[in-house]
Amino acid sequence: MLLCGFTAAWAAQTVTVAINPAGTGTVAVNPTAPAAGTTVTLTVTPAEGYKIAKSDIVAEATIDPGSAQMPRPKDAGPNVGIILELQGEDPADLSAEREYTFTMPEEPLNVLVTANFTGIPLFNITVADIQNGSVVPDKTQAAEGETVNLNVAPETGYELDELYYMKGTEKVTITGTSFQMPAGDVEIHATFKKTQAMYLIGSFNGWSDATMVPLTKNDEGKWVGTQAMDANGTFKFKDENNTWIGAESNGNCIVQYEYVKNGAALHLAMPGTDFEIPVAGTWTFTVDRDSNPMTVIISGDWYFRVETETPTNGTLRANKDQALEGETVTLTVNPSEGYEIDELYYMKGTEKVTITGTSFQMPAGDVKVYATFKQAEYNITVNSIENGSVTPSKDKATMGETITLTVSPAEGYELESLTVMAGNEAVTVANNQFTMPASDVTITATFKKSTYTITVTQPQNGTVGASAATASMGELILSLLKQAMRLTRLR
């Protein structure tokens, strides 16, 4: 029996790439000479204007023709071998770069990767004849799904009204200034309208067109502006053509409007009435020009008026002539000499509100503050007095009253001094009377012992003498008789 044998030496395994058509993209292999079982990464990059899907890429394991080992019958032509499964997902944009992977087969198999790129159809972008402005796209051709950016430029005094493209007979509105290219040629259209403008005019600027306040259009399409106005100020609106807006030709308003008071809306006027500011302040005007009827919202801080009535017998002053609701208003109240506050209050319409102390919280409305004064009563006090008493005709009195003092010395005493003091000031006392000052008074009196005269009547058949010619009650007096001497008490 004849045995024959041989040993085959295999070359290193390789991965070969074929691009179809040539120049339509690239496929990078990593690693380039992988060993069996290695994960091979394919980085697939279409050329500009081309795309490819995973299904357009074939990775097959093969042995060159004539080799001693074939992976399977060559039923599909030369160099056709085992088809390898690619891993990875297609991107949403098939013209974008992406990666796929496969596992290198056992030796001696090599891998041939064939990538079949296809061209992406480009569609034409044209611009129709446009008046009062221009629209320029950033490209003249684009593939389906590609973003087309537009440069929209209105002429001076105009603004964009409508922007759209036509694809055949289909009209598609363009939102913003870009759109996604459809699968077909498009023609871009735009219309421009005269720019809208809105101005505030009124008593605050003497109804002068030269100094009208421009309003600004916000993102909601409403016109907004701010202006300081006095109470009872009136105003209206004009448009870009300097004609009344929201008003008849004679200026009478045909809009409805409302005030927003400290955040709360109050509906105050309807069509046919005139605009008027209720209280002074800085106001924000928000105008819905497109509503029917046109609506104006006037918002701001509501300052209410504070007035004071001029009183008699005193003065009254407030620390402010206007205030917000809830704000503290402080009053300075000064009675005239001899007077005091009788009543302090404010009137809000027909409502009378008593003020406690000299301040109050501002209500939601104009107020007028009143003060009345009355004559003040002052105390009459008598200090402690010895050896007598002083009694005033009353213990309280108003400034200017005449007070009579009843002075009653104790037995054997007489008035020495009588003083009336108003603080540190002495009050004049005449004939036991004084005029009441504008303050409390204190009465002080002193009494001294009375001095009496001693008269001696001489008896018959003798003489009598006294030890003193005068004496006070209770003093001892000695008398001398010619015949004898004895002690006598004289009364």
Question: Quick summary of this structure?
Answer:
With 491 residues, the chain is mostly beta strands.
Describe this structure in words.
- This protein is mainly β and 491 residues long.
- The chain folds into six domains: 15-119, Immunoglobulin-like; 122-194; 198-301, Sandwich (Immunoglobulin-like), CATH 2.60.40.3620; 304-375, Complement Module, domain 1; 378-449; 453-486, no CATH class.
- 0% of the residues lie in helices and 51% in strands.
- The chain has a six-stranded mixed β-sheet, with no helix packed on it. The chain has a five-stranded mixed β-sheet with strand order 12-10-17-14-15, with no helix packed on it. Strands 29-27-34-31-32 form a five-stranded mixed β-sheet, with no helix packed on it.
Integer tally of domains: 6
Q: Name the average pLDDT.
A: 84
Indicate the low-confidence ranges by residue numbers. 1-9, 65-79, 248-256, 261-273
The percentage of residues in β strands lies in: over 45%
The amount of helix comes to under 10%
CATH topology-level name of the largest domain: Immunoglobulin-like
